[in-house]
Request: fold
Amino acid sequence: MIDLDPRLAADTHPVTQWPLSQVRLMDDVRFPWLVLIPDRPGLVEIFDLPAEDQDKMWREVAHAAATLKTLSGAHKINIGALGNQVSQLHIHIIARRPDDGAWPGPVWGVGERQRYDQAELAEFLSGLRAQLIAPGQGIVEEGQTR
Reply:
C-alpha cells in the first residue's frame, strides 16, 4: 500500500480497497463524495498510469460513481482529478443535487466543511461498503465474471 498524502488521510475516511485504488469518503456531510487513490507510488497524472491500469481506473471510477448516484439520489455526478493542492493522483467523485449549497457551481471553496458526526459516518459507510464490496457488486477484473 502506498503512503497516502497527509491531507488526503486527514480529510477522508477509508471505505474499501479495490484491485487498483483505495476508496475513501470525503469528510463533508454536505456532499456525498468519494475519492479514489490508485495504489501505485509516484503518480501525479492519470497518464502516469500504465494503459492497463488506466482501464482499471476508469472501471473503478464508473462503478464508484454509479453506486454513489444510487445511494445518494444525486441528480448529477461530478468527476475530477485536479491535483492543484495535493499532487498525489486522486479522483474526486461527487454526488450533486439542485438543493446542495454549491449547485450549480463547483463544490470547492464553497462554505465551510461540515464533518460527519459518528452516527452519520457509520450509517453512510455501512451503506457504501454494502454496495461497493458485496458479492456481485465489486469490480470485475478482465476475464472474470460476476
